[in-house]
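A protein record in our archive is deliberately plain, so that people and models can read it alike. The record that follows is passed on verbatim for readers who wish to inspect the format.
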Amino acid sequence: MIMTSKAAGGWRLKLKQFRAPVPLLGWLLGALGAVMLEHLVGDPFSELLGLPKIPVLFGALIMLKKPLLIPGALIYGLVIYGLPLALLGRLLAKPANLAAEHLFRFSKPFSVLIHVALLYAVLHAWSDLSAYRLLTLKFTLIAVMLTLSLNVINGYMGEFSCSHPGFMALGAYAASVFTLGLFVNDKLFGEALLSPALGPFLFPLALIAGGLVAALGALLVAIPSFRTRGDYLAIISLAFMFIVKSLLENLEVVGGPRGMSSQPNWANLPTVFGWTVLCVWIINNFVRSTMGKALNAVRDDEIAADAMTVNTRRTKMTGFLFAAFWAGVAGGLFAHVLRFINPGTFGIQRLAEILAMVYFGGLNSVYGSILGAVSLSLLSEALRPLEILKWIIIPLLLILVMIFRPTGLIAFREFNVGNLIKPKNGGQTED
């Protein structure tokens, strides 16, 4: 009886250990295991299920194109992703908690780097199986940058700006002129001025130049807009977007309405991922800084903020130019991922997409911006086979969110990296 009682107690302890809270490190290891499993058995398993190829977006495209393949696509997603992620996450709960605890105590920055490296490994392994996955992932990361930067204005500052496609266009064209003019034999700019071998090393300067040009363009909006109060920014920023688009269409030196092409293929996944991580880190620090708190004060009550010695005009201009800079960097990356741009790319549809991501994810929240950008980017690609119906489903979804969650899915929530990487239960399971 004593042995039976001890055995039962041991099984209960093992069950509690298995059900212990899983830290982020455990889920990342589980995800890495799932994508490695897909590398090993994805092709034969998809053939066994009668699928034409490995599902590129978790089976969504296959299910919409050929409804008869829905069971096979669901089984593929469950076996390749669902079960390994759940099982590995749970089985690795205790060792992952212990590892997370040691990393957290040793050095928080080092722990963050380990988590970021694991996230990159998961994304790299997942996108390595398909060029379509890779392109979708790059555009999604760029969407994260655009959504975060616009949330600084529309969320943290409390204004309503429509100028982000214009900033994105300025950054895209400035970065393209930098790379095509200096490192490429181009029909618009002639012979390269510098060796193409230097290009990848100086590419960050092209992106920074794109951001600075976008920030200078933002001055044209900020100077007249922030002399007044009310909805003038929305009107002026919308006009700015159309002015930039019209200007680029009439400048033959940058291709006019035909646009620019043949940008060097320097925006690989490590580059786009690195700039996205840098953008998230810097914007998160910015909105949590004194300047970010000042933006919130201006949003809540500008008159009260002014009475409390906050320089409201300078605060708004700083936040606006800061957001425009990151939109320009995102535009530079976009140009070198797509390797073709024209003025029509940066019109009203681009504005609608970015605004939808901001308000769907949630205002005043880094979490919300990331969620909105990732979910709507992937949903837009997943619904591509529906063609025109896609533009009915997504707006209906947004309407429902606005009705039941007017501020977005995750609004007014602080992005605390320490809470993400810390162990659950201090690395120990409960007795």
In short: Residues 426-431 have pLDDT under 50 and may be disordered. Strands lie at 260-261, 340-341. DSSP finds 18 helices and two strands in the chain. Residues 42 and 54 are 6 Å apart (CA to CA).
